[in-house]
Amino acid sequence: MRAxxxxxxxxxxxxxxxxxxxxxxxxxxxxxxxxxxxCHPFYTGKQKLVDAEGRVERFRRRYSKAAK
Length: 68
Known about the structure:
By secondary structure, this protein is an alpha+beta fold. It is built from two helices and three strands; from the N terminus they run E-E-E-H-H. It has a three-stranded mixed β-sheet, with no helix packed on it.
């Protein structure tokens, strides 16, 4: 490996909207996320719709008419 070409890793804390905080290292520093493994439906097994601007409801209305 060549010397002095790799970015420096700093201690970082990743905080989720659900309140979970992960301690890790990152070149970007600390930041926050909307979903993590503690609250994501795939990992928890709970159905939770993340609706952005009513898109899920608009999808359901559109395709409920097509099923009839």
